[in-house]
């Protein structure tokens, strides 16, 4: 489905985000809303549009290492294995 061309006078976006880590368990999610004000375009059908979406995810890394929070990126990093597999050691 497509909205086609949207001419607008104004638009906004907002959404809360959360993340929780306990040992290796990670739970995170986000809800987002985008609003478009089309009142100046003489669109009588729906001058104010809202698009809403979100997600919730849970993870437990099988490598046994947690996903640490990186404040510089404001996100959880990829887990780094404490003992990487090595073909030379026969792992």
Question: Main attributes?
Answer:
91 residues, 6 strands, two-stranded antiparallel ribbon
What does this structure look like?
With about 90 residues, this protein is mainly β. It contains no helices and 6 strands.
Class per helix and strand makeup: mainly beta
Low-confidence stretches: none
Task: Tell me the helix content.
Answer: under 10%
- Mean pLDDT rating: 83
Count the E strands.
6
What portion of the residues fall into strands of 2 or more residues?
Answer: 35-45%
* Major β-sheet annotation: 4 strands, antiparallel
Distance between the termini: 48 Å
- Overall outline: elongated
Helix segment count?
0
Order of helices and strands: EEEEEE
Please state the CA-atom Rg, rounded to the nearest Å: 21 Å
Topology summary:
Layout: E1 10-14, E2 17-22, E3 25-37, E4 48-59, E5 69-70, E6 75-76
Antiparallel strand pairs: 1-3, 2-3, 3-4, 5-6
Task: Describe, in short, the structure shown.
The chain has 91 residues and is an all-beta fold. The protein contains no helices and 6 strands.
């Amino acid at each position: 489905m497509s909205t086609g061309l949207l001419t607008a006078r104004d638009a906004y976006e907002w959404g809360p985000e959360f993340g929780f880590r306990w040992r290796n368990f990670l739970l995170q999610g986000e809800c987002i809303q985008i609003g478009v004000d089309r009142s100046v375009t003489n669109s009588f059908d729906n001058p104010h549009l809202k698009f809403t979406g979100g997600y919730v995810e849970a993870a437990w890394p099988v490598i046994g290492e947690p996903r640490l929070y990186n404040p510089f990126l404001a996100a959880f990093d990829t887990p780094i294995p404490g003992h990487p597999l090595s073909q030379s050691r026969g792992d």
